[in-house]
TrEMBL record:
Pfam families: CCDC113_CCDC96_CC (PF13870)
Entry's localization field: Cell projection, Cilium
Annotated protein name in UniProt: CCDC113/CCDC96 coiled-coil domain-containing protein
Organism of derivation: Electrophorus voltai
Signal peptide feature range: none
Domain of life: Eukaryota
InterPro entries named among the record's database cross-references: CC_CF, CCDC113/CCDC96_CC
Length: 219
């Protein structure tokens, strides 16, 4: 169970916990299956060897008694069993190779587990540094947000002051009013000058002797 948990912990960083659990169970099942096959093959091989040995002894006994067809049949059967033994030995070699491969993988997995266990303290220290950095950045972010709110309030005040410049229609109306005021000022200056001129003329006329009759009016 500890072996399975350690293997799952090592693979979980790369495959995820669920996938790692499935993969480890598959490997352990394959290892158990290979070992069972190896055991069964050894038992079968031993049984066949015993049968071959028994056949050989039986053949020798029969050879001593007779040289007939029964002996030839036994020899043929013996060759068949020997061929079966060779086939079983090949299967046994393949199973042993599979077990060796599984053991190599387990060794690699153990090395990976040891490496991960050694790496965990450094990762934790790095995580603590990152958390501290995040805390500082959050504080800085609060300051930035406060400055942003202040700038936004200042900007709103400036926008209120400069709303005339931002609104083209209001600006055009304002320009028209300014132009109208300038025209009125100009007309006022003209009227003032005309009034002054008329006042001067009236004064000059009043100062002349009354030779041409009474002055009716003077505007």
């Amino acid at each position: 169970m500890m072996k399975q948990e350690a293997a799952v912990g090592a693979l979980a960083r790369h495959l995820g916990k669920r996938a790692a659990l499935v993969e480890v169970k598959r490997l352990l099942a394959a290892e158990q299956k290979s070992e069972k096959k190896l055991t069964a093959a050894k038992i079968q091989n031993l049984a066949l060897e015993m049968r071959v040995q028994s056949r050989k002894e039986h053949i020798r006994e029969l050879e001593e008694k007779t040289r007939g067809s029964v002996v030839e049949k036994l020899k043929s059967d013996n060759q068949i069993y020997e061929a079966m033994i060779m086939e079983c030995e090949k299967d046994l070699i393949n199973i042993q190779k599979g077990i060796t491969s599984d053991r190599v993988f387990q060794t690699h997995l153990k090395e990976k587990i040891n490496f991960v266990e050694l790496e965990i303290p450094a990762k934790r220290a790095s995580l603590a540094k990152i958390k501290a950095m995040i805390g500082h950045k959050r504080k800085a972010l609060v300051g930035v947000m406060m400055a942003k709110d202040k700038l936004r309030a200042d900007n709103l005040r400036l926008n209120e002051r400069c709303s005339l410049l931002r609104n083209k229609k209001l600006l055009q109306d304002f320009e028209k009013v300014v132009d109208a005021c300038k025209d009125l000022e100009s007309q006022t200056d003209i009227l003032k000058r005309q009034h002054e001129k008329l006042s001067v003329n009236c004064s000059a006329v009043k100062s002349k002797p009354k030779q041409s009759g009474p002055l009716r009016h003077c505007v």
